[in-house]
Every structure is written in structure tokens, then in C-alpha cells.
Amino acid sequence: MAETKDIEFLRGLTLALLAWYEKHRRAFPWREEPTPYRIWVSEIMLQQTRIEAALPYFDRFMAALPTVSTLADVEEERLMKLWEGLGYYSRARNLQKAAKTIVADYGGELPASYEKLLSLPGIGEYTAGAIASMAYGLPVPAVDGNVLRVCARLLDDEGDITRAPVKKRLREAVYAMLPPDRPGDFNQAVMELGETVCLPNTVPLCSECPIRGGCRSRQAGHPERLPVRAEKKARRVEKRTVLIVIAGGRVLLHRREDKGLLAGMWELPSVPSWIPPEETDAVAATWGARPTETVAVGDGKHVFSHIEWQMQGVLLYTRPFSPPEGFLWADARRLREETALPSAFRCYSSRLAQWMQGETWSGQ
Ligand code: SF4
């Protein structure tokens, strides 16, 4: 538990923070119309995506799937299309799994209970706290990376914030500050401060901070040194050859396995090594292709959280053939309107889209 003197000290800062938030809060669609469903979807989108990038996705998602039950019932391919470009597609799948549970067990309304929210797929402590406090006014902290940073600086806590005991004590500090009548505003105020003033990886804008008078790392003269975070493990590099197999204005897509990276997504077929262009015909032949021309189309890279794909692309023109199970032909309309391609392939899919509109393949 945080010590009593810390608790008293922290509570003294709460009002200043709330007053600052009232003046400086940014207007977002989920804040202007804060239903439990909208808050939930926004929080899931914002887990790995910047706010500015998520805004058009959020509006499109809400227009297409305005309720929990529409989300529960939507076709998976349509859901993936709505998520296309946001990445981390398991977030969308978990949203739908949770929506089905909410319809089956809670009559289509998100439960007003932190524990019940926490039991839903894709909802961890932070998201459960955000929904419980913002949508239902329950006095629960919502501690994300922004909040950990603000708190570590405020208390001059030099513990490694990737460690569970450090996270726990910082969470307790936030809990101690929570005003029981405005937990949602308070949680958003700390996050907003972290996003706009107490900035990461740089010197924070302390002169604009409403709680600077009580900030211990500022008094110590080293806020930019905090939070302490253990070095991340280096990413594993994976070399892949991407085969862009085309025939009659259509491109061959492959469905990935149901588990693991990009589970169940349609992709440009690829093999996990770099192979010379002249050997790609033999690989494509195992799917039934009869290539007539093979062209190297350059390298690409995509960085996931733990893996980096270093890709080389090969374009194969082939005579039409019936693809085996797990493959399909997609034309321009299908790619535009129905089937999502993961952004890992953006280095090729943007040129593919241009090619499908009749332009020559560029960027070789
Ligand atoms: S005074 Fe500076 S370091 Fe402290 S909480 Fe405010 S912005 Fe962050």
C-alpha cells in the first residue's frame, strides 16, 4: 500500500488536476457521447493506435456497427475490413467474442462491474477500469503507460515500471487519488496530462503542468529520466519471400492459420525465407500456378511487436487456375470493399491496387 503521507499528498493534487482537465480536455467522439459501447470500442482501438489515426476508424466502425448486437452478428470478413490498417487484428476478434458474450449473458449491455468486464475477452485491467469509471462512474483506476509515467515522475519512483510490484504500487497511488464522485474524469485527466504535457521520451512540459508544485521528480531536477523501463528484448528477424501471383486482373490470396501472428487473415502468399526469383515458380506450382513471367519487385519491411519481417517481393504472372483450399482469387472490388489485407503487406498492396486500376507495376 502507498504510505499515509503519500496518500494525503496525492489527494491534495486531485482537484488541481480535475480543474486543469475541465479546461484542457480534447473533444473526442467517445467523450462527447460516452456510452459504454463507444468507450469500450475506442479503448480497444487506442491500445496500439494513435488517437489521430484511430478517429476515422472509430467513426466508420460506429456507423457500420452502432450497437453491441450488430458487432456480435457481423460477418468476420466485414469486421476485418472495418479494422483494416489498424493492425493487431486479434483486437477485433476479441471485440466480437466479447460482444457475443455480452448479448448472451448481459442482454446486450456491457456489465456495470469491474470484475465482469475483466472476464470478457480482450479486456484487461486497464480497459475494465476505463469502462467501469468512464461509463459507469465506478471508483476504479485505469492505469495505462501514460498514467504509469505521470505517477512515476510525480512520486519520483525509480522502480522499473515493467515489473509487477512497481506497477502495483503506482496503481495504488492512482487509487488513492481517485475522487469517488468523478473517477472517470480523473482517470481521463491523468491520461490527458500524460499525452499532452508529461510527455514520454523527452523533457516534459512541466511549466504547463497543474500538479508541478507537488511533483517530486521535477523538484529533484530529473523528470525526463523517469520512468525506468527494462530494455526490451531485441526483435526476431524473419526473412520472407512474398509471391504476388496474378492472373486475369485478379491476385491470389492465402488464408493464414487460425492461431499465431495475423491469425485467420487473408495475405499475399509467402514463404519463410528469401528464395531467388527463378525458384519461386516451383513454389507457386505447388498451389497449381503455371507462371509465364516472373519479376522481382523489391524489398519491404514490417515491424510487429516481437518480430520484424524483412521481405522480398516477386510478381508472378500465371495462367488462370483453380486455387486449392485456403486460397482464393480477389479482384479489385473484393480487395477494396470486402477482404482486409494486413498492413504488413502495405509495401506491396498499395502498388497492387494501382496495378489493378490499370497502371503498370511501379517501384521495382
Ligand atoms: S511536473 Fe513535469 S514531470 Fe511532474 S507530472 Fe507534471 S509534467 Fe510530469
Kindly, what is the distance between the CA atoms of the first and last residues, rounded to a whole number of angstroms?
60 Å
Count of β-strands: 7
Could you say what the CATH topology of the largest domain is called?
Endonuclease III, domain 1
Number of helices: 16
Molecular shape? elongated
Strand content: 5-15%
- Main β-sheet, in a few words? 7 strands, mixed
Mean pLDDT: 93
Briefly note the structural class of the backbone.
Answer: alpha+beta
Helix share, percent = 40-55%
Bound molecules: iron/sulfur cluster
Q: Outline the low-pLDDT stretches.
A: none
Quickly count the domains: 2
Using only CA atoms, what is the Rg? Answer: 24 Å
Please write the CATH class name of the largest domain: Mainly Alpha
Give, in order, the helices and strands: HHHHHHHHHHHHHEEEEHEEEHH
In the CATH hierarchy, what is the architecture of the largest domain at level 2? Orthogonal Bundle
The CATH homologous superfamily of the largest domain is named Hypothetical protein, domain 2
Description:
The chain has 364 residues and is an alpha+beta fold. It folds into two domains: 222 residues, Endonuclease III, domain 1, CATH 1.10.340; 121 residues, Nucleoside Triphosphate Pyrophosphohydrolase, CATH 3.90.79.10. 46% of the residues lie in helices and 15% in strands. It is built from 16 helices and seven strands. Helix 1 packs across helix 12. The termini are far apart. Iron/sulfur cluster (SF4) binds next to helix 10 and helix 13.
